[in-house]
Write a structure and sequence with these properties.
The protein has 150 residues and is α+β, with helices and mostly antiparallel strands. The protein has helices spanning 33-50, 55-61, 135-143; strands spanning 13-19, 63-74, 83-93, 97-106, 111-124, 129-130. The radius of gyration is 16 Å and the shape is globular.
Length: 150
Amino acid sequence: MSKDPIASPAGYLETYRGIVMPEQVDAFGHMGTTHYMAMFTEALGQLYGQCGFPIPQLLADGSVLVAVEQTIRYQRELRALEMVTIESAFLHVGEKSARLRHRMLKGPAGELCATFEQVSVHFSLTERRSTGIPPAMRAQITAHLVADPG
């Protein structure tokens, strides 16, 4: 793993900024896994809002994007009081599903610490089943798609 800063890929949106609080550090001296998930979850809400479909609107409309697959890759540890930034983007949109990626960066140099990828399915809260992504939402996601560098 290189210590070189990782440049922000074009099209990624900043969706989280904070610091690792001392109470988020585990017995091994680095941020615990539950706190990674909490930060990624906050970033997800920001991504949806910045793309034009905030979570309260989704709930009011009776349909949401629900996670069906999540993958976290830890690359570099985070310690207490280190700055954290998350950048997020959609990578793909299909008929019923979308795939996104969060990139967690450390400090002003922007060292990549973790990536989080999620596949979500559009889900009707009234029918309790997956449904097609509405055209307006598909257009909003499509407008924010970035190339997947792999």
